[in-house]
Write a structure and sequence with these properties.
This protein is of the alpha+beta class. Helix content is about 40%, strand content about 40%. The longest helix has 18 residues. It is globular and about 40 Å long. The two termini are about 15 Å apart.
Length: about 90
Amino acid sequence: MEILKVSAKSSPNAVAGAIAGCIRSEGAVQLDAVGAGAVNVVVKAIIIARGFMEPVGVELVCVPSFIDIKIEGEERTAVRFTVQTK
C-alpha cells in the first residue's frame, strides 16, 4: 500500500487525483499529515476523491489513526488516513 506524505502547501485537487489513482491501481492508500494545515488538505482531498470515484460506483472509506514519525531526527505525531474501497 502506498503512503503519501501531505503538507499544508499541497494542492487538495492534486492529492485527490493521487488518491483516486492509488485506489484504482492498488485498492487502498495511506496519507500522512503533520499539523492542522496538512490534515485540512487531506480531508479536503478525500472529499474531492470521493466525488471522482462515486460516478464509477466506487465508495471510499477513511480510517484515521495517530502514528509517530521522525522528521529531521525529531519524534513527531502525525495523523494517518487509510483510504480504501468499501
